[in-house]
Amino acid sequence: MKTDSFASQSRKKIIFGIIIIGFSFLIVRLFQMQILQKGFYDQKSQNNSVKKIDKIPIRGLFLDRNKDVLVNNIPSYSIFLTKAEYNLKQNKLLESVLNLEDGHINKFLKENEKYSKFIQLRLKKDTPFNVIAWIEENYEHLQGISYKIEMQRGYPSDVMGSQMFGYLNEISQNQLNKLKDIYKQGDYIGSTGLEKEYETLLRGEKGYDFILIDSRQKLIKKLKDDNSIPTIKGADLVLTIDKELQKVAEESLKGKKGAIVAIEPKTGEILAMASAPDFDLSKFASVTTDEYLQKLINNPSKPFFNRAIMSVKPPGSTFKILEAIAGLELGVIDKNKTYNCIGGAEFYGRYFKCDAVHGIVNITSAIERSCNVYFYHLIYKIGIKKWNEYAEKFGFGKKTGVDLANEVSGFIPDEKYYIKEYGGNWPKSIMASLAIGQGEVSVDPIQLAQFTSIIANNGNTFQPHILKGYIDTKTNKLVENKTNPIHIDINKEVLDIVKNGMFLVVNGRGTAYASRLPDIIMAGKTGTAENPHGADHALFIGFAPFDDPQIAFSIIVENAGFGASHAAPIGKLLVETYLRNKINKDLNKTVAVK
Amino acid sequence: MNINYNFNDKFDIWFFATIILLLCIGLLAIYSATLNNALVENNFTKQLFWVGIGIIVFFIVFSIPTNTFKNIAWPAYLFSILLLLVVLIMGRKISGAKSWLFFGSLGFQPSEIAKISTILALSSFLCKKDVDIETFKDILIALAIGVAPILLILLEPDMGTVLVFATIFLTIIFWKGISLFGLFVVLSPGIVAVSSLFGTLPFITTLAVVALILIFFKKGLIFSGSLFAINLAAGFFTDFVYHALSPHQQIRIKSFLDPMSDPLGSGYNSIQAKVAIGSGGLFGKGFLEGYQTQLNFIPEQWTDFIYSVIGEEYGFIGSTITLVLFLILFLKILKIANTTKDEFLSLTIIGILSLFFIHFIINVGMAVGIMPVIGIPLPLVSYGGSSLIVNMALLGIVANVFRTRKNYT
Question: Which of A79, A140, B1, B267 has the smallest CB count inside 10 Å?
């Protein structure tokens, strides 16, 4: 045993040395980190805990032409899930608390696989406050679950506006790839209708907050040295829509299929645009249940479809107006030209019927009583080439350019088309069908409404539009939406003859006499489009008051039958609603002035 | 023999004051670390309770007859081996290691008790008159005493604790007086083993150095040859053990070699701890003002990463004061080890010193990023009842030996 080496002074010194060396290492390292590299670690610490957070601006409102609110924003609670922290064991509990169906969370996670596990995914919108209270209470046990107050669309008026207003959707991965400078995952973006059309105006500008968060991304506090950038509210849209008229238009189509477009002829401003069936936008703003969505998707009448701009139908007898203008303008007939209606006539070996035996009719009475025979004769005088030219001149066969996506053009056949279909010797008898707006010709309600406006305002109107203007958030002033003027040269006499015919349709012995109004003079033209697949479509175009038209409209009620009995009464209702309200308002104004 | 001591001779008040100061720093840091974390909001109160118990334990151990330690050495050793066996069967897993035994809600790690008893048993064996640390047989017996708990703990598996036992063992045999060559014989397989973790090249280089040293000592071909073979085997064995390790420990080792490889995984703790300490600067951000700490960026910061709390909130000054307190503690223990004439007690105290020092160096080293992240608490400062009680008992032994140091001549 070497007692000399046990606990010897040299061994003590070695241990002492090791302690001192270890100690020095740590001190040097601390000095390096805390004194020399402090800035570096400070920065890291800041990056860790100070986060730039997007502030979502308040989306612009929709106001009607009288500045009544149609679409606004209401606060609601949304629940978010962060995959990195979330424990799947909480599925059952959460699903029952959030009132989600079994397996919803797994499905949700699968759908959101592509997103980083560190971002917050919106699990549920519009959560009741008692659920939020529960989450707040159990926060520590609900890892990966958080909530935020978000704005969702609200619809305070009783106007539906389903297809026209449109709805928002969470931005898709594709859109995000294109627009990643502006949007982030989870942001909402206008998906249909005006929400989509005017997304750039409505969305406003995002702001940023610099906030202190903890390791679980929970907000601790806003930083005092405020570098935050405020949001800029989205511009409020002032629509051309008249709330009351829109409501009546929608209600008059309730339970039916069809569309209504009403325009102020002098300006091209769309006063109402309805398409039925429609759907409840508030259900899209809040939680869209699968059940509701499936019901809409599976509905054969396609509620998502904006019939006012997307549904093409033969115009029926309403097209006789166009033909009358063409005939008179071209001089192939004058107002005294008559034909004898014996209940039908034969053209190119085919017999074409009229609804009645009208006897001797001139152009005015032919319009008034919708005599087919007169127009059969007339179209052969005009010829298909000129007929097609006039149709296109009045805006058929092409989009009106209304400020909504997915508008269709309709179709106005020309000679080329028939040659292609039937060969050079195509049956001219077809033209007789075109004369009464049947066959291959197809138009949509907005084209008919625009056409009616042109006539009502003597050839002058503007491109139809729904946006009257928007209120600039900075200046708080209305920036008007200017659309292209439309001017069509029509001989004054020709217009007078046609308008007189339309006057008589309602106010004479015409097809729509049942829809006349005692105090307001309305003019119009009924139509019934034959439908090889089922009941005929009822049409009515019209304008009022006759002397100074304030409203022009087109109405289609699908599979309803005669235009006179199913569309014209709606026209009466529209005119009554709009003009009575307007007259009352004007009266109030004059009273106030006095 | 009866010598009259004055109070200062019996009780080193500065030694005790250092301990109390470290306990206070620990309590402050734990309070700060758990303030904003509802899951552990009771930890401060619990620790306060354990500090009270710890001080009582310290004084009990301080006042019992000194020869008790030697008497209980072997029974305690056998008892703790038994506990280590029991924990393997009945233990509860916490973060990958089956190292906890629970009596109701009260949990403790048998390896903590094994630390005391192994020190006592090893010292007890080595202080026997007929033991010669230079003989192969006695080295083997000493190794066996040290390795038995190491093997059982390896099975849990708990890397950090294994490292602690290895250090205690080496320090004690070094203190006992093992020759440089003897130390080399014991140590070289370990160094080779560690180097093999870094890849083939470091492994071969280390083997070459071992070969050179063997040639230098000229201890005969057969002896040198077999020692080289043991070294070689250690390298391969380590590779085998590495692959047998639990994944979280493998990742921890890997992430030490390259912490940035997995910034949100196990390197995360290390990076966040560094950020906390570094951003503390000279004076620190102040009590309860550390972002990293208060916002819970460092997982489990009240235990293994408690030093980062001190670093962030009290800065370089606070961190250094903590280090200096430890330095004072270590030097005082070393002095007592050196002045005690009784070989058993001296060995025991040096064992205790090595235990504290290795905990200290690894824990602080880990927080400042110069040591791998192995779960080892900072003595007296980290949260944890059983470790605190054992540490206070160990310091009680030191104080006890100080009290009676003049009885042995």
Answer: B1
